[in-house]
Each structure stands twice: as structure tokens, then as C-alpha cells.
Design goal:
This protein is α+β, with helices and mostly antiparallel strands and 146 residues long. The chain contains three helices and nine strands, in the order H-E-E-E-E-E-E-H-E-E-H-E. The protein is elongated and about 55 Å long. The strands form three sheets. The chain has a four-stranded antiparallel sheet, with helices on one face.
Length: 146
């Protein structure tokens, strides 16, 4: 049972351990109470404090001869390469104003591949591409549910 979002260990303490990963999307990294399976097939139960978010790269668990590290899964996103600083700020403002999350990927802004985001970007006249990428949100936005 995992009750903390990360274990405080140094690289030296991990030397020689098998590195197993728990690969999760951005949304899945926010689900603190559930059963998960690592890439190597280890079953874990998450019982994290309410409001916890797992961070890619964090060591989640150290066991006998192995450790489990959180990894971000590539997922469907809409990628915008802003033509100007002003366009980047406008996109970031409008995405945040709708309570969606946004990620930075080099020169690109990434937003969830969602019909509302596609409609917003089209209305703003912003050029975007549909792709798959690791999505690590800048903020802790939330979505309005039905």
C-alpha cells in the first residue's frame, strides 16, 4: 500500500536496484486511491492523501531489490507553436479561463485533445496539430464535469 507521493532517497540508495515504472497520464497521476500495475507487472494499491498529484521522476516505492518510479505516459494532445509572445499569452489565458490545464514542451504549448479545446483554438485562429506527447501540466487546473 502506497501512502506517500514520493520516497526521499538518494541516487546512491537506488544503485543496483531494478528500476520499475508506473506509467500514467496526467489525469491518472491525480487519482490517489486505486489499484495500479507497474510496467514489470507489480500490483500496487494507492492510498494517497486527498489532493495529491504524482510527479514524473519521483520514486514512489522502494522494495526488496527494486524501486518504482513515476513516469508520464504519452497521451493525445493539441500542440500549438505560438507565432508570438502575445499569442502564447492569449492561448494560456483562454485555456486557464476554461479551467483546463496547459503544458510547456519546448516552444510548444500543449492542451488536452478535447473538443472544447479544439473549438477554442479554432475560434482564436491559432494553428495547432493533433499529436501524442508527455503532458505535465503547468498548474493544477480542474475541469467542469457534467
Amino acid at each position: 500500500m502506497i501512502t506517500r507521493t514520493h520516497v526521499h532517497v538518494g541516487e546512491g540508495e537506488l544503485a543496483g536496484l531494478e528500476r520499475d515504472t508506473l506509467v500514467l497520464t496526467a489525469e491518472e497521476r491525480r487519482w490517489g486511491r486505486r489499484r495500479v500495475t507497474t510496467r514489470a507487472g507489480r500490483a500496487l494499491a494507492l492510498a494517497l492523501p486527498t489532493g495529491s498529484t504524482l510527479t514524473p521522476g519521483d520514486v514512489l516505492h522502494v522494495g526488496a531489490g527494486f524501486c518504482v518510479v513515476v513516469e508520464a505516459a504519452p497521451e493525445p494532445v493539441l500542440a500549438v507553436t505560438p507565432r508570438s509572445r502575445e499569442e502564447a499569452l492569449r492561448v494560456a489565458f483562454e485555456v486557464g479561463n476554461r479551467h483546463f490545464t496547459l503544458a510547456l514542451d519546448g516552444e510548444r504549448l500543449l492542451v488536452p485533445d478535447d473538443p472544447a479545446m479544439e473549438q477554442l483554438l479554432g475560434r482564436l485562429g491559432v494553428v495547432f496539430t493533433r499529436t501524442r506527447a508527455v503532458f505535465v501540466p503547468v498548474g493544477a487546473g480542474h475541469r467542469h464535469e457534467h
